[in-house]
Write a structure and sequence with these properties.
The protein is an alpha/beta fold. The protein has seven helices and 13 strands. It has a seven-stranded mixed β-sheet. Strands 2-3 form a two-stranded antiparallel ribbon. The longest helix has 11 residues. It is globular. The two termini are 18 Å apart. Belongs to the glucose-1-phosphate thymidylyltransferase family. It catalyses: dTTP + alpha-D-glucose 1-phosphate + H(+) = dTDP-alpha-D-glucose + diphosphate. Its cofactor is Mg(2+). Its EC number is 2.7.7.24. InterPro entries: G1P_thy_trans_s, NTP_transferase_dom, Nucleotide-diphossugar_trans.
Length: 241
């Protein structure tokens, strides 16, 4: 599959470090954070990547990653001109993907200790719809929390930062879609904060009975806080797959 990496955002929780660099370029062990996601994707067979970031960060990503040659991939860059949400950022990758094509979407601050190849293989065998990966957490109210039909292996609904979580799992930032996701993005409306939310996209699949899930077997982290960034550095120790 091809993959889209979304690496925009202001990194508010990591200021003052993010005053002068994009959070996805902060060091985790010996490497910039973004490099771990690229390495995991390559390990899973991805060779073509679309990287979406903001205008002010574009040059820094090109400086670090170039064409992707050193990482065994080909990278095409797209610029998100304003903060419009994850789904809007994903929309920018539409010209790079073919009708009927399956692809993965990775939020660039999501880090995984294990290979994601088995999940990609499962999704390639899935006839249609989408797939998300779940991870057990102690504080699900901080995340998007799924209500699951475990017998059917599908998600019924995802609620963002619920007061009363339906489960102790969160939806991680690695999604797999069929190219019809762009039709869904065309049909959703901006949220109260004026952005196109990826949870609304995933719920469109869920309510149609087409959102499957797998539970991650290894460690996962969204390195968006100082605590999680420190944890990631300790866990990964600069080792790339």
């Amino acid at each position: 599959m091809k993959a889209v990496i979304l690496a925009g955002g202001s990194g508010t929780r990591l200021k003052p470090l993010t005053y002068w660099t994009n959070k996805h370029l902060l060091p985790v062990g010996r490497y910039p954070m973004i490099c771990y996601g690229i390495a995991r994707l390559r390990e899973a067979g991805v060779r073509d990547i679309v990287l979406v970031t903001g205008r002010s960060s574009l040059g820094d990503f090109v400086e670090v990653l170039g064409s992707g040659r050193d990482w065994g991939v080909s990278i095409v860059y797209r610029v998100q001109e304003e903060a419009g949400g994850i789904a809007q950022a994903l929309e920018l990758a539409r010209p790079m993907l073919h009708p009927g094509e399956k692809f993965a979407v990775l939020l660039g601050d999501n880090l995984f200790s294990e290979s994601v190849a088995p999940y990609f293989d499962d999704f390639q065998r899935q006839a249609d719809g989408a797939m998300v990966l779940l991870y057990p957490v102690n504080d699900p109210h901080r995340y998007g929390v799924p209500e699951m039909d475990e017998a059917g292996g599908k998600i019924l609904h995802i609620e963002e930062k619920p007061e009363h979580p339906a489960s102790t799992y969160c939806v991680t930032g690695l999604y797999m879609y069929h190219a019809d996701v762009f039709d869904i993005i065309d049909g959703i409306k901006p949220s109260q904060r004026g952005e196109l939310e990826i949870t609304d996209v995933n719920n469109a699949y869920a309510h149609a009975g087409k959102l499957t899930f797998r539970e991650l077997s290894g460690w996962w982290n969204d390195a968006g806080t100082f605590e999680s960034l420190e944890e990631a550095s300790g866990k990964l120790k600069g080792v790339l797959p």
